[in-house]
Amino acid sequence: MSTVHVVSHPLVQHKLTIIRDQETGPKDFRDLVEELSMLVAYEVTRDLPLEEIEVETPMCKMKGQMIAGRKIGIVPILRAGLGMVNGVHRLIPTAKVGHIGLYRDPETLFPVEYYCKLPTDVEERQIIVLDPMLATGGSASAAITFLKKRGVHAIKLMCLLAAPEGIELIQREHPDVDIFTAAIDEKLTDHGYILPGLGDAGDRLFGTK
User: Fold this and answer.
1) Active site residue 30
2) How far apart are CA 124 and CA 35, in angstroms?
């Protein structure tokens, strides 16, 4: 069974409360999503392996630690996942970015794929899938399935809010994928929105509603 990591740092919870507020406009919402993504990514990358190297400071030579092992890849689920990319990229500037386009059919709530572009060496990377809202979990699960079909074995899912239903689906369909989130909310509404949630993340990011 995969592990769910809830990032309870005070700064994360403070910023999360602001983006929940319906009075927070698109610019502040975008800025805060970027900041939250960087803070949550700090926890996602906590277990990256290190190797010892020698460097020379202005004073003397010394041995320091640098990240080793797999390179990192970031894969946002379009479109709302785009709002998280810059925050993660600021923390890991060498990470390559792929994109998976999925939308949720309003009738069935099932994901439909419409776009995919991934790094050519995606199977060699530790992939962080970005999706602000883990609601039904269908889109995230479909994206993870697609990555696995492309040979990716090291995947983590990073979101800002999660519903119990979405967590259950990911753990059932992808027990090898850990989930990182800033909060686990109460439940889903009949229309598949997280309650209390923050509304539609894509619309609030891009001012489309």
Assistant:
1) no
2) 28
Does the active-site annotation cover 172?
A: no
The percent helix, strand, coil of the chain (3-state, each to 5) is 35, 30, 35
The verdict on whether 121 is a catalytic residue reads no
The per-residue pLDDT for range 1-42, each reduced to its tens digit, is 789 999 999 999 999 999 999 999 999 999 999 999 999 999
Catalytic residue (one of 104, 125, 131, 185): 104
Helix ranges, the chain (H):
10-20, 26-44, 82-91, 138-149, 164-173, 201-206
**108 flagged as catalytic:** yes
- Say which residue the tokens 């509603």 belong to: 209
> What's the whole-model pTM score?
0.92
Rounded CA gap, 72 and 94, in Å? 8
Cβ proximity of 25 and 33 under 8 Å: no
Cα separation of 135 and 78, whole Å?
15
Task: Please name which of 146, 145, 192, 137 lies closest in space to residue 4, comparing C-alpha atoms.
Answer: 137
Question: Concatenated DSSP letters for 151-209?
Answer: T--EEEEE-SEE-HHHHHHHHHH-TT-EEEES-B-SEE-TTS-EESS-S-HHHHHHT--
Catalytic residue among 57, 108, 120, 190: 108
Q: Which SS3 state, helix, strand or coil, does residue 136 take?
A: coil
**For the chain, which ranges sit under pLDDT 70?**
109, 209
For residue 107, which amino acid is it? E
Local structure of residue 2 (DSSP, 8 states): P
Rounded CA separation 143/174 (Å): 11
